[in-house]
Amino acid sequence: MPAHPPQEARGSEGVPLRPLPVSFRTAQHEWTTEDAKVPEVIAKLVHNPDEFLRMVDENDRIKHRQLVYRKDTVPQLLDRGQPLRTFTLPGLDGREVEVEVTEIHRMPDGSGGSVNGKVKGRFNSLVSLGFANGCESFNVLSPDEGLYLTADAREPGEVFVKEIDPNVYGRPPETSTPDFILTSQRPPGTKPGPVRSK
Questions:
Q1: Sheet holding 147-155, edge to edge
Q2: pLDDT by residue (tens digit) across 77-87?
Q3: Which of 31, 50, 89, 148 has the smallest CB count inside 10 Å?
Q4: Per-domain residue ranges for the chain?
């Protein structure tokens, strides 16, 4: 009887898990080979057409994007029941960032939360990591090193790590329409609503 070929592991929305080959690995992380800013590569990685468009649109505001596989995620570390004082995040191209934990917030059911900290030995730095259902996203800001990273979750244990220019990445899109979230002006064509008394 012929052997059946192994089934490819699938994540949410049927995307293949670990879709790109690994170019470099450490005890904690594996960095993939392909440039995740290239539209043909992005197409292999996304869950849906909207995510593809968002990532391609984001390309002008980032310097580099790389898919990284994580062996020990923060939710896994927290589930071990030991106090979490330090952990390691991936940077780009084989670089790792050691994080000193300053606060942990966890949902009562353990399905999500956040961890804040700083880059080890860098007082003037900020690290924030959020997690839900095994997926993580994070920001690393360390001006003294010129290190500005943000990472979006792909699947549990998989993150898109991006190097950003903080002067460009956080800027709202150029438009003549005011941002009504950031201003007290009402959107055009709307009428004032009723005033609620306390």
A1: 22-25, 29-32, 62-70, 158-164, 147-155, 135-142, 126-132, 112-119, 96-106, 86-90
A2: 999 989 999 99
A3: 50
A4: 12-169
